[in-house]
Each structure stands twice: as C-alpha cells, then as structure tokens.
Write a structure and sequence with these properties.
The protein has 149 residues and is mainly beta. It contains one helix and ten strands, in the order E-E-E-E-E-H-E-E-E-E-E. The protein has one domain: Deoxyuridine triphosphatase (dUTPase) (Deoxyuridine 5'-Triphosphate Nucleotidohydrolase, Chain A, Distorted Sandwich), CATH 2.70.40. The strands form three sheets. Strands 1-4-8-6 form a four-stranded antiparallel sheet. Strands 2-10-5-7 form a four-stranded antiparallel sheet, with no helix packed on it. It starts with 7 loop residues before the first strand and ends in a 26-residue tail after the last strand.
C-alpha cells in the first residue's frame, strides 16, 4: 500500500465553523467538501451556481485532486457538478469551488456546511509526447465507441 499523500490545507477566515474535508468511512475514496456559502443559496431547476468550499490546498507535485459529485445528491435531488470530475492541479492555490447544476424538477437549496461534493486525491504522471510518422499497429486499430462489443 502506498503511504498517504500529505496535503496542506488552510481555511478561509470566515469558515472556522465548517468541518474540514473528511473521509466518512475507512474505505471511502473521497473526502467530503462542504458548502461555504454565507447564507443558503437556491438553485432553480436547470440553473447552475459556483459554490465555494472555504478551503485552500497545496498538493505535492505529481498529485491532483479530482472534484466529483455526491451520488446521494444526484439520486435524491438531480443535483450534480458540471466539469466533473474537476481537476485541481498541484500548483493551484485558490479556494476550492464547485459548479453545481440542478437537473431536478424542484429548486435545490444549498445550505452552509452541507456536504456538496467529494474530492479524490490521485497520483498523476505527465507525459512526454513523441511525434512519429506512424503509430504501431494494435489489435483494436482505429475502432471507435462500442467497437469492442
């Protein structure tokens, strides 16, 4: 098993009352992110809103944070995230924020402190692209979506 990645974190000054991102179970892959809105925000059906999470992180080089929707919000309310998964690069130092969209039939209220998204920490590699005249053959070839059955 790989050792845990150390992620430095600080809170926005007015967010001391909010929980820090946390794993909800021992086997959880994602840390829950909380809405750091000053007052409740209502998102109408079909509308989207940028929701701050009140935290800033510093990731080590070679690591990203993937910001993903919470399945319970999607199933129960039709609420998800645009640009999902969103990528937080290791050199980003701004506040974590999520773009919430309401695909449901009813307005959705984002309350301060509610679990609004999850963040998965993942190791990544940067590629070295090498331009060649021709790619090596493969069994699949140029078969597209659904081509493998």
């Amino acid at each position: 098993m790989n050792p845990r990645v150390k992620v430095l974190l600080t809170r926005r000054a007015d967010c001391g009352d909010l929980p820090l991102p946390a794993y909800q179970t021992d086997g959880a892959a994602g840390l829950d992110l909380h809405a750091a809105v000053a007052d409740s925000v209502t998102i109408a059906p079909g509308a989207r809103r940028l929701v701050p999470c009140g935290v800033f992180i510093a990731l080590p080089e070679g690591v990203e944070a993937q910001v993903r929707p919470r399945s319970g919000l999607a199933l129960t309310h039709g609420v998800t995230l645009l640009n999902a998964p969103g990528t937080v690069d290791s050199d980003y130092r701004g506040e974590l924020q999520v773009i919430v969209i309401n695909h449901g039939a009813e307005p959705f209220v984002v309350a301060r402190g509610m679990r609004i998204a999850q963040m998965v920490i993942a190791r990544v590699e940067q590629a070295e692209l090498v331009e060649v005249e021709r790619l090596p053959e493969s069994r699949r070839g140029a078969g597209g979506f659904g081509h493998t059955g």
